[in-house]
What does this fold into?
Amino acid sequence: MKSLGGLIVFLGVLHLIAGASVTPQKVRYDNYKVYEATIENREQYQLLQSLDDEFALDFWNDIHQFGEHYDVMVKPSEQSPFEERLQQHNIKYKVKIENVQSLIDNEQPKTRSYGFDWENFHTLDEIYKWLDEIIERYPDIVTPFEIGYSYEGRLIRGIKISRKPGNKAVFIESNIHAREWITSATITYIIDELLASRNPGVQKMAESVDWWIIPVLNVDGFVYSHEVNRMWRKSRLLSDPSGKCIGTDLNRNFDFLWMLTGASDDPCSETYAGPYAESDPEINQMTKFINTSIPEDTIKIYISLHSYGQYVLSPWGHTDTEFPEHYDEMMHVAKGFADALYRRYNTVFTYGSSATTLYQVSGSGKEWAYGVKGIPIPYTIELRDKGEYGFILPPEMILPVAKEVLDGFVGMIAAAKEIDII
It folds into this structure.
């Protein structure tokens, strides 16, 4: 598969060059609505799933048990028949977002300060320029690294923050799903605080742990979400021979129980797991980097940063009847994160295994981190909110989210130290 992976990247570069002169028309979501549909039984659940093909629905979340709510985006021409079908089957619903495009418009920068800020969402180029600045500013603390190139030929960059030798490490990958902009906005704030905070608790955390951070893993999808389609989720790998459907859900592409559950073999699906495990260079190269460039047994905490829902999710994702050996430790550290985060704005994060708390999933980053690498504390952390804005948080929420997550990290590291994980 090694030579095939190189060919995939090469074809992606050619695709990028060929398309450089053609700027796709920006996708708009005028009068698209997001509905909150309450699912009370299996019949209603199956009906809503079946409506996906009929109405080309965009499910923004998933549900774990009956009585919970689906957030579903529906285009204007399908809204009346969609509502009729819900009413026919006694599915309670309400409109959660009246006009998705109005939220997207609100994200656009109104003012630009000099330099990097956390009052606006930033592009990949802006994030990379800022990384260059902090690498130059903190040469004794910050070490840049690269894991390789994306399918379309973009460099995937990260930084290591280390203040003393011999530390155990936290590894964080962010923006593996393109439309989850709050994740890269939050992690860049965390980086800034790890380097320059005056808070003694943050300083202690920064000194006692090494931090390996990739601010944007899905670089192709992230650029596409800025330039063409704000709601794009997947990578940009062309894996459908017809060319009709593009992209892999990178958080289903890891080589651990790949395609067992919670993933799709349909290239058009938002949870398409790819043609084979680690088919996408972003995942193949990141796992290779961890295997070859970070000393074995150094990483003790692995975090895949996502939005939305306010969850700390641990393994297992593939089963709700078995729990990993380190589950008690995972829950202790998750509680430390959730309790510390709560104190600032009373934001509640739910924690537990993916399969028991949210939904079944396999082939994800945290499952690989534990199942293959034996990293004892691996999480998917879903940031704010609970669906009022969903993936399209207003820019004024960046700092509140980032600050509470920083508090959570302080609590997380303290809890890990209590049980000698770090």
